[in-house]
Recover the amino acids of this structure.
């Protein structure tokens, strides 16, 4: 069975698109998610993904087109507006960040569901399948989707590659970066915009509800294995790709398995293994070390230490 | 108000500076000149606005009114002359990076956009680590550092900025004796090279031993002048607003020591 899947991955049209698409979204999500996690903004990705839903619906209502570029643009604009709204609420009012996240996320998502329901009952034959943006459906990926994802993801990755040094400083010590003269507000918005791109390319495959996991899970797992940011970024991209491809292929080959949740479950397996068994930071080794130390302390006896 | 004659302008000149968070004033109408080539302490109780003063001078906090000049020019034009050591607790020390990398961040301003640190930066950073006595820990993951070592890494990062005036926010807070010694040695060495050092300080016991100049602050500027003349029972009580027996002893002990000289 495994060789058959490998063969299909290369030569079966659907499976090849599914694999390429989910690998792309995994890599881009993993790379950008690293910075989101290090800046303690994991939930921003969640709000952003939910906020993208009304944009998808509106883009379809305005254009009547289901072209991936059109829907992605709608998703990006609305996700970006949602994120800026959160930043403004935090800056200009006394509402805390978690509250602002909760409000924006639910309001945008609610609006998105209302619009989506409207569209579905409009009798427009072309609308079929817009609801796949909720939980994702990898099987619907076609070559055009993958091409659009590659362009958008490429832009996001290029931004990170160019400004790696600046983003690192921003994530580690934003105030020091500002004292050096780096425009930290604008850098922050640029980084968030790149995260918007990462979210947008995952929406068709993973869906708005679970997309945040593709930002957070690979990064959390990668942090367990390395102490270097460069390695963490690459590893996180690789974990994202692995989870994406595995989950998507399982969902396409087995029937009645939603893609988004399956990919997230695969990412979760990677996270759990990493949390437990990573050499330095793993819980298991930590417990082993602690037991060894306790035994040593007991063996040396109480009276010996002053 | 900006001086055109750079030679006569002091490292730091603050005029009519008021800073407020929402409606509460944190700094009120501060006028202050900091003289060149001195070790300057900023002291005052918690909430006196010491960190805020530094951050406002560095352009990190926007003042409600007033101006700040570094060697006669706005800070934006003089960044290259300024080094900064933030409070150690302001960053996440579990960040995935090592000591050398953090020190190199001091050179990001000189490097400018996109360019990455290379061999020259690496050697300069190692030299800075040498100065704070941590050259052997260059490859160490920063989460494995003690508090004192973290502080010295931050100091080395400021050294890498190669500045003329340095601002240090509580560099002696919660560090071991070795680190305190290492830091004060570095600060004195910098002073000997003509640098100006502005330090938020908490330990009044060491104030007169370490510093040439004292700025006493409690929202308003209480006093600013040479340490021996400025730090007195009167200015202390005005700054801290308390008369605890333990702290008054500070001055009596000093008076006795001075009488014995």
């Amino acid at each position: 069975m495994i060789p058959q899947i490998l063969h299909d991955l290369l030569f079966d049209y659907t499976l090849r698109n599914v694999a390429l698409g989910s690998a792309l979204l995994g890599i881009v999500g993993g790379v950008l998610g690293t910075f989101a996690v290090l800046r303690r903004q994991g939930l921003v990705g969640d709000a952003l993904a939910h906020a993208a839903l009304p944009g998808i619906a509106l883009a379809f209502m305005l254009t009547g087109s289901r072209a991936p570029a059109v829907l992605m643009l709608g998703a990006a604009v609305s996700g970006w507006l949602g994120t800026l709204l959160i930043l403004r609420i935090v800056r200009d009012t006394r509402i805390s960040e978690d509250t602002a996240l909760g409000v924006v996320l639910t309001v945008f998502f609610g609006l998105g569901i209302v619009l989506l329901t409207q569209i579905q009952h409009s009798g427009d034959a072309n609308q079929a399948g817009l609801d796949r943006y909720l939980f994702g459906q990898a099987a619907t990926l076609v070559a055009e989707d993958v091409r659009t994802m590659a362009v958008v993801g490429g832009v996001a990755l290029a931004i990170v590659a160019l400004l790696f040094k600046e983003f690192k400083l921003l994530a580690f010590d934003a105030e020091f970066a500002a004292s050096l003269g780096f425009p930290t507000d604008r850098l922050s918005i640029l980084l968030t915009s790149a995260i918007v791109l990462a979210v947008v390319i995952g929406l068709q495959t993973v869906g708005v509800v679970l997309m945040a996991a593709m930002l957070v899970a690979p990064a959390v797992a990668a942090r367990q294995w390395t102490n270097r940011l460069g390695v963490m970024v690459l590893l996180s991209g690789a974990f994202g790709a692995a989870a994406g491809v595995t989950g998507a292929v399982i969902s396409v080959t087995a029937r009645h398995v939603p893609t988004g949740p399956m990919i997230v479950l695969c990412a979760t397996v990677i996270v759990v293994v990493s949390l437990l068994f990573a050499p330095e930071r793993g819980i298991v080794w930590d417990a082993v070390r602690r037991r060894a130390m306790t035994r040593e302390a007991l063996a040396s006896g109480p009276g010996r230490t002053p | 108000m900006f001086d055109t004659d750079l030679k006569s302008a002091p490292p730091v000149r603050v005029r009519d500076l008021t800073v407020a968070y929402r409606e509460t004033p944190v700094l009120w109408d501060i006028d202050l000149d900091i003289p060149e080539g001195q070790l300057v302490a900023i002291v005052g109780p918690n909430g006196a606005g010491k960190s805020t003063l530094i951050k406002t001078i560095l352009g990190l906090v926007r003042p409600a009114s007033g101006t700040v000049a570094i060697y006669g020019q706005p800070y934006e034009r003089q960044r290259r002359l300024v080094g900064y050591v933030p409070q150690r607790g302001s960053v996440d020390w579990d960040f995935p990076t090592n000591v050398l990398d953090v020190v190199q961040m001091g050179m990001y301003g000189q490097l400018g956009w996109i360019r990455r640190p290379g061999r020259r930066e690496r050697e300069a950073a190692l030299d800075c680590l040498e100065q704070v006595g941590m050259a052997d820990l260059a490859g160490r993951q920063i989460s494995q550092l003690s508090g004192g070592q973290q502080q010295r890494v931050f100091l080395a990062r400021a050294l890498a900025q190669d500045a003329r005036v340095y601002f240090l926010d509580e560099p002696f807070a919660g560090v071991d004796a070795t680190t305190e010694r290492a830091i004060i040695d570095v600060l004195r060495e910098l002073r000997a090279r003509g640098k100006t050092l502005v330090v938020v300080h908490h330990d009044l016991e060491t104030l007169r031993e370490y510093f040439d100049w004292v700025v006493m602050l409690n929202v308003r500027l209480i006093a600013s002048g040479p340490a021996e003349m400025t730090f007195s029972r009167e200015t202390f009580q005005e700054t801290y607003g308390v008369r605890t027996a333990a702290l008054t002893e500070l001055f009596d002990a000093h008076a006795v020591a001075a009488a014995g000289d």
Residues 13-38 of chain A form the longest helix (26 residues). DSSP finds 15 helices and no strands in chain A.
